[in-house]
Amino acid sequence: MSTVQTARPMGKGRRSRGNATYWLGLVLVGVIVLAGLVSFVWTPYALSDMVGGRLEAPSLQHWAGTDRLGRDLFTQLMIGARIALIVGCGAVGIGAAIGVTTGLLAAFATRFLDDALAAVFDILIAFPTLLIAMLVVAAREEASLGTAILALGIGLSPIVGRITRILTKQVLGQDYITAARVSGTSWGAIVFWHILPNIAPFLGVNLALQFGLAVMAEASLSYLGLGAPPPNASWGRMLQEAQGTVYTAPWGAFLPGLALFALVIGINLLADGLRDRFDPTKGAA
Amino acid sequence: MSDLLTVRDLRLSTPDTVLVQDLSFSIAAGERFGLIGESGSGKSLTSLAVTGLLAPGLRAEGSVELAGTQVIGAPERRLVGLRGNAVATVFQEPLTALDPLMPLGRQIAGPVRRRLKREGAETSRAAVRDEVMALLEQVRLPDPVRLIGAYPHEVSGGQRQRVAIAMALACRPRLLIADEPTTALDVTTQAEIVRLITSLVDELGIALLFISHDLAVVGQVAERVMVMRHGRAVESGPALQVLTQPQDDYTRNLVAAARRFDAALEGQG
User: Fold this and answer.
1) Across the interface, do A183 and B111 touch by the CB < 8 Å criterion?
2) What does the pLDDT average to over B21-31?
3) What is the rounded average pLDDT of the residues B124-135?
4) CB-based contacts of A158: which residues, under 8 Å, 6+ apart?
5) Higher pLDDT among residues A68 and B66, named by residue
6) What angle do CA A273, A274, A276 make, to 5 degrees?
7) What's the domain count of chain B?
8) Chain A: residue nearest B80 by CA?
9) Who's near B84: CB < 8 A, 6+ residues apart?
């Protein structure tokens, strides 16, 4: 027994830790997804109804307290979960669509085009994502949920593009790509059947990271008043509205902050865990 | 009679070095040809040039005519049609030559489906599966039902190389290139793989370009051989003659070294 433990202490420790973080991530994300989904059919109160006193502390009637207009904060948190998830999925979807396409293009392009695209990625990455997103919002001349999603998606795309380019080049250098080519596989089939599946585990973890960044960035946009406009509740705007009363009613700022933190860290843990679980070259064989 | 593969005055170079030069040889349909040389002698590059898969920085000059098509300078579209149809390759290291994230059965199914389409045959899931099973049987893999669902890292090195051979045969090529197919395997497995390759190409009437640095293995496999050194052919001829009565000093040294190695093994055993 002791020899087994000294032989592979790292391997064993890593796997059990990986499992614990996976479950923690699943629970955190699961709770928020559930809250977001339930918000479509049920919330404790209507979003903009003034249903209680001003700045009430959490109680049985108002689980998360009320804001300075007497609106129910738990209702806002639930709607905020929905908004955060929509923004995260939408922005990552748009970012991945643009980023993966351009990244693949760069990896397959001629030397000159490849260098040019790589330089464009690097220059765009040097701009803060939030700044790019603000420029897009400014260009669309209206703050809406769709604009915020589009803006963040565009802002994330250069990072995805750069990672896709590097991962694709790595896979392209592998023997199995040569083997596939020599058996007459077309480039399209190679991209679809060999390259995308082989970059997916790494790309997926990175996209999860981007999801977290998108959610945070949306909160920042909302905080600045550039996010989804008022009938929607966003965690970022909740934070902004609670700013003035943070000493008298700290829960108003604390709870949306906690929700943001839980979603971002949950997504990251879950992505890490999923990669470890579904990588067939690892674990029990 | 026109040969299946004719290489004439092949010259491969990077901007500052010449890697292969003055290389000429031909392989007739159904013939087994051996290419011998130490690592870095240009033999693998030659095989890549035959399939038109040279790295972008390399320049190829001369003529490589495969099944009546000039490979050098041919557009990718024409090469894709040629690969698999006229030529297929078995690589040195089967672990890296198989996609780590794709089950083995699907890796074989890809070329099978392309060939069935090319031949105008039925390409239903069942037809492809039947053909995959037949191929696995042909390369003598045990337990094919388990194997088609397994990933490359879950089977042994010898089994992986058999899968790679099945993939190459799935294309029904007229020329099979085996680029050091036994180097990554242990000695007993080597012998089995060599026997398997020779018997399969004979059975199916496929020509073989067998590349190796191992004289004994090439001697078993090839009817004719060519010895390469520093990118040039130093000697070529019937296998028996080159390996028993080498004319060139380098070949003579190679043969003598191989003999000494065998003698040392026998002396110990």
Assistant:
1) yes
2) 94
3) 93
4) A99, A120, A121, A124, A125
5) B66
6) 65
7) 1
8) A184
9) A182, A183, A184, A185, B111, B114, B115, B171, B173
Q: Distance between CA atoms of B248 and B35, rounded to whole angstroms? A: 15
Asked if residue B167 belongs to a domain, the reply is no
pLDDT on residue B268:
63
Q: Measured between CB atoms, does B164 come within 8 Å of chain A?
A: yes
Residue B181 inside a domain? The answer is: yes
How close does chain B come to A76, measured CA to CA in Å? 44
Show the domain range for B62. 5-95+175-268
Q: What are phi and psi of B189, to 5 degrees?
A: -65, -40
* Separation CA B209–CA B207 (nearest Å): 7
Give contacts of B100 with chain A, Cβ < 8 Å.
176, 198, 280-281
For chain B, the distance separating the N- and C-terminal CA atoms, rounded to the nearest angstrom, is 49
Mean pLDDT of B255-262: 84
Q: How far apart are CA B5 and CA B199, in angstroms?
A: 21
The label of the residue with tokens 């190459």 reads B168
In this structure, chain B runs to a length of 269
Higher-pLDDT residue of B175 and A54 is B175
What is the pLDDT, as a whole number, of residue B34? 95
Give pLDDT, residue A28: 95
Let me know if residue B170 belongs to a domain.
Answer: no
CATH superfamily of A72-278: MetI-like (1.10.3720.10)
Cβ of B101 and A280 within 8 Å? Answer: yes
- Strand B5-13 and strand B18-27: the pairing is antiparallel
Q: Is B247 on the interface with A (CB under 8 A)?
A: no
Q: Does residue B79 sit within a domain?
A: yes
What residue has token string 């030397």?
A111
Q: In whole angstroms, what is the distance from residue B231 CA to residue B228 CA?
A: 6
To the nearest 10°, report the CA torsion of B183, B189, B191, B197.
-80
- Can you give the pLDDT at residue A113? 93
The 10s digit of each residue's pLDDT in B212-251 is 988 888 988 999 999 999 999 999 999 989 888 888 988 8
Chain B, residues 124-153, CB within 8 A of chain A, namely 151, 153
Q: What is the interface size between A and B, counted as CB pairs within 8 Å?
A: 80
pLDDT tens, position by position, A269-281: 998 888 887 776 6
Q: Which residues of chain A have pLDDT under 50?
A: 1-13, 283-285
- pLDDT, position A14: 53
Where do the domains of chain A lie?
Answer: 72-278
pLDDT (tens digit, 9 = 90+) per residue, A118-154? 999 999 988 888 888 888 888 887 778 888 899 899 9
Q: Does B111 sit within 8 Å of A176, measured CB to CB? A: no
B20: domain CATH number?
3.40.50.300
B230: left (phi over 0), alpha (psi -120 to 50) or beta: left
